[in-house]
Amino acid sequence: MPDQSSTPVTSAAAAELQQLLLATENISEFLEELAILTASVLPGEVFCGITVRRDHQPATVASSDARASQVDEIQYGHAQGPCLTSLDTGVVVLIEDLVDDDRWSAYQVPALAHGVRSSLSLPLQSDGQVLGALNIYATEPHAFGQHEQLAAGRFAEEMSRALALAVRLAERTEMSQHLQNALASRAVIDHALGVVMGQNRCTADEAFDVLRAISQNRNVKLRDVAAEIVTAVSGQPPATEARFS
């Protein structure tokens, strides 16, 4: 274990972390650079990856190099391994020496073949929810002492913040898209109501009853019925997105 003077949590690393926050333009780039920084700060030959779940399946969203992604993929292929355990349980998983650790038998041999002797997997969490896992692999046994674990924990905190931000942005983007779709549908229906009102010289409520009756009789969505009417009158399909001035 290194002494206090050689702890990887150095002021230079902290300064570089701050620079990353300012210099990177998007979350994916930030996570990639953070994975590379994590590997470069820890002593020895270290490589790391960041795992999240996409459509209920684990995936590596950033890595310090190709080998980290390959070792991650071994775990995904066998549905077992330290990073998946950390992802599923929300606990830190430490392997002191993979030669003597057979908790994940299908993972052990191929990981050793890739040069992994020890590893540290840390959950990435926000508001009590596990968003992903930071997977750090070393080519030497017993590579993760107290100072290394503290350093890894600091980077895991930054990655957790980045992933939490990504989740919030994705949710807002999805909400915005739903709103855009709702507004576009409303605009098409309003246009069709105007057509029906003009053709039948009726009120808006009566025109809506006409559209609804057609929708129910044909078992077609009201928006699609409206789109057919608008297309028949204008000669072109309505816009699929709401327009804003």
Q: Which fold name is given in CATH as the topology of the largest domain?
A: Beta-Lactamase
Number of strands: 5
| H/I helix tally | 8
- Look at the structure and give the mean pLDDT: 83
Largest sheet data: 5 strands, antiparallel
Please provide the ordered H/E string of secondary-structure elements. HHEEHHEHEEHHH
Give the N-to-C terminal Cα separation. 63 Å
Architecture of the largest domain in CATH?
A: 2-Layer Sandwich
How much strand?
15-25%
Low-pLDDT sequence parts: 1-10
Write out the CATH superfamily name of the largest domain.
GAF domain
State Rg.
Answer: 27 Å
Helix vs. strand class: alpha+beta
Number of domains: 2
CATH class group of the largest domain: Alpha Beta
